[in-house]
Design the sequence.
């Protein structure tokens, strides 16, 4: 029995817990999504969840075939190998996003905002490419959550070592420097100001993560 099954017996029915963050996120995205929409996955990377998620979970989180357009963007050229879509785009850090104004109805950012070193620039770019009335849907760690505080206390050069122990399936190419400049509600409201944006953000506890194979550590984190 895995650690997660020990804490959450429902894992055996579908492969995910009742607190699964990606289920929560993509359920809400699906509620906003229309077949005629154009969607951008911002910070899509290599598409690691295509390889990591179980088929039952992917049937809920993979929305790439629903909208009229599903585009991918990343500053890392590895996105050109992402199997989620053939509509792939790259631009270096600090370069304008390679899209026309008002291009997208929805922009998705899964665990990306914590890596943005120039929030003013990228907030402006995301606002530029979103259509009026469009949605920026993002999940990012709370700056003051246990993991974010721990990440800031541990020297960046040691992050890879800790992650290999705490998340055995995580590959080196999936790790990026974290800066936490867009990781509080106040920071989001400051960089995406009214009246151009209205905010519907909230805090969410997805349950224990980064516990390796230790039931003891998982129970401590859950507590």
Sequence:
């Amino acid at each position: 029995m895995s650690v997660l099954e020990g804490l959450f017996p429902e894992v055996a029915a579908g492969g995910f817990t009742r607190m699964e963050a990606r289920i929560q996120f993509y359920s809400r995205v699906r509620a906003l999504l229309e077949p005629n929409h154009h969607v951008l996955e911002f910070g899509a990377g290599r598409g690691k969840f295509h390889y990591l998620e179980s088929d039952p979970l992917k049937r809920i989180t993979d929305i790439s075939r629903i909208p009229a357009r599903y585009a991918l963007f990343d500053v890392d050229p590895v996105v050109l190998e992402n199997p989620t879509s053939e509509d792939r785009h790259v631009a270096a850090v600090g370069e304008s996003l390679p899209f026309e104004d008002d291009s997208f109805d929805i922009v998705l950012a899964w665990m990306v905002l914590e890596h943005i070193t120039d929030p003013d620039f990228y907030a402006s770019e995301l606002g530029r490419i979103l259509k009026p009335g469009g949605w920026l849907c993002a999940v990012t760690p709370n700056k003051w959550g246990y993991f974010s505080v721990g990440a800031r206390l541990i020297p960046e050069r040691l992050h890879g070592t800790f992650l290999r122990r705490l998340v055995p399936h995580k590959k080196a190419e999936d790790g990026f420097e974290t800066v936490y400049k867009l990781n509080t509600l106040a920071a989001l409201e400051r960089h995406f100001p009214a009246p151009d944006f209205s905010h519907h953000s909230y805090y969410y506890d997805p349950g224990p993560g980064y516990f390796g194979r230790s039931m003891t550590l998982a129970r401590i984190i859950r507590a």
Summary: The chain has one domain: 3-217. The domain at 3-217 is CATH 3.40.50 (Rossmann fold). DSSP finds nine helices and five strands in the chain. The first strand starts at residue 38 and ends at 42.
